[in-house]
Amino acid sequence: RAKQAGGQNYHYFTDELTRDAVSRFQMENQLRQALLHKEFYLEYQPRISLVDGSVRGVEALIRWQKPDGTRVSPAEFIPQLEEMGLITSVGEWVLHTACLQARSWQQAGLPEFKVSVNLSAKQFVQKDLCQIVDKCLAHAGLDSSFLELEVTESLMIEDLQTSVRMLQNLKNMGISLAIDDFGAGYSSLGYLKHLPVDTLKIDKGFVDDLATDVADAAIVQAVISMAHRMGLEVTAEGVEEPDQLDLLVSLGCEEVQGFYLARPMLPEILEDWLLKPKAYSKHLLPNGLC
Ligand code: C2E
Ligand code: MG
Ligand code: MG
Ligand code: MG
Q1: What are the EAL domain coordinates in residue numbering (predicted)?
Q2: Which of 55, 96, 116, 214 is deepest in the core (most CB within 10 A)?
Q3: Is the pLDDT of residue 3 over 50?
Q4: Which of 188, 190, 216, 212 is nearest to 202 (CA)?
Q5: Interval between CA 255 and ligand 4 midpoint (Å)
Q6: Is this structure's pTM higher than 0.90?
């Protein structure tokens, strides 16, 4: 029966499925080990003000290095942790660690800046999220005005009323809120006016071809002007080239993040970086901004 081409296909597909299932199973086991053996750590990527060139904040980004030295991208393992029901505990660890790090930088006398933490959808629907956040801040001794939380828009659209209430509660605590990856995936502009957020982070997808694609430039320009009229600030993500930076300055974007300015760094590397002169400053000077 299995000698026809169809039969071969059948085997081909089952082999594929088995391989997928096996690799998922392996990854799940490895993630459980990672939690037990503390294989996660954080890097911090600076967010630079285009108003005065200062470091306005750093985004905490989770990293996973396996015992064999290989690294796995969070884009890969975060969804898996979500499915496994482990994202809330890992997410709490991220919050806790980022708050402690921010406080320790303040105590070391570094210029003050915020720390941003990404929240997954599963964390955002936790009933006790505010208490968890409060506990992390209190334990670190960090003032809430130095914490920013990043959430994605797809998460808001699912249950607007509950989302608005959660955001408002967090905002009432004095925490800043940002919409991450704005414009990517599902987008509805109408809901935006209901969200008590402070910042829109324009998705890297629009920044990539900003200097060469008129449509992308138009979108970025429109988002910046809409955000400003709504009293929101704009951060452009994924700035990799000086041309993009020049355009963002001229469009009135107030903040940028990207490899051209700084990569995500380990805390001690970031501390050294903060002391060094910055090559990107020259892009701010001609406009009298720096
Ligand atoms: P995100 O929150 O949008 O973070 C920005 C991502 O873009 C980071 O990738 C960062 O390293 C990368 N990036 C920044 N500038 C550039 C650039 O100029 N060029 C390029 N090519 N990439 C740039 P990363 O660290 O791999 O994280 C991917 C995503 O994983 C994050 O996207 C976020 O959604 C998620 N993530 C990371 N850490 C956490 C976490 O602690 N909790 C949760 N829930 N999600 C996290
Ligand atoms: Mg983010
Ligand atoms: Mg993003
Ligand atoms: Mg993202």
Answers
A1: 24-278
A2: 116
A3: no
A4: 216
A5: 17
A6: yes
